[in-house]
């Protein structure tokens, strides 16, 4: 399943790329833990993210999630950060 998830993200439709306020997306896993996938998205502000998350393109962008993929209950979380330096 790890490879299917990695392929799905590598071949994603990039629907989020044109969302107002979207700055970027990185998909990664910790070294030695390919089954643990981290998504880090960057937005100009929290409201832009929340608007996209409730919208049609959010749901459409998840159509390519591999069938049978099970998220570990309690392991999925959304955190919001303030960037203060680059």
Walk me through what this model shows.
- The chain has one domain (about 1-65): Alpha-Beta Plaits (2-Layer Sandwich), CATH 3.30.70.
- It has helices at about 1-10, 45-55, 55-60, and strands at about 20-30, 40-45.
- It is globular and about 35 Å long.
- The protein is of the alpha+beta class and about 90 residues long.
- The chain has a two-stranded antiparallel sheet with strand order 1-2.
Give the rounded overall mean pLDDT.
Answer: 87
The N- to C-terminal Cα distance equals: 35 Å
- CATH fold name, please? Alpha-Beta Plaits
Strand content: 15-25%
Total count of helical runs of at least 4 residues: 3
What count of structural domains?
1
Can you lay out the helices and strands and say which pair or pack?
Elements: H1 2-10, E1 22-28, E2 38-43, H2 46-53, H3 56-61
Antiparallel strand pairs: 1-2
Summarize, please.
By secondary structure, this protein is of the alpha+beta class. It has helices at 2-10, 46-53, 56-61, and strands spanning 22-28, 38-43. The protein has a single domain, classed as Alpha-Beta Plaits (2-Layer Sandwich).
